[in-house]
Write a structure and sequence with these properties.
By secondary structure, the chain is mainly α. Helices cover 57% and strands 4% of the residues. The protein has a two-stranded antiparallel ribbon with strand order 1-2. The N and C termini lie far apart (78 Å).
Length: 99
């Protein structure tokens, strides 16, 4: 009896969706959900629909541009590494106390 095993070749590869890598997919999804909420609030307040659409589409275009730029610039883990650099000390201070 021989068994046939299928090898999953996608293991340890980053999640990529239309050029977006890893956490940037979540950022774009959350941003789009916020834009839907902003449109809803503006519409309920009574602002004209044309103005609501201009604001939402303009902000959405900027959101897409910004998220894709961050994904290209930093890649999968680069932004986390950049943010971690803030916690690296610039200098070490050694204080010796003599008794």
């Amino acid at each position: 009896m021989s068994s046939v095993y299928v090898i999953n070749k996608g293991v340890n590869k980053p999640i990529v969706f239309r050029g977006l890598k890893a956490q940037y997919i979540w950022w774009l999804g959350i941003g789009l959900a916020v834009l839907v909420l902003v449109f809803t609030i503006l519409y309920i307040i009574g602002i004209p629909v044309v103005f609501c659409l201009i604001v939402v589409f303009g902000s959405g275009g900027y959101l897409f541009w910004w998220v894709y730029k961050m994904s290209r610039t930093y890649g999968e883990h680069g932004l986390m590494k950049k943010n971690a650099e803030r916690y690296i000390p610039r200098a070490l201070i050694i204080k010796r106390t003599f008794l």
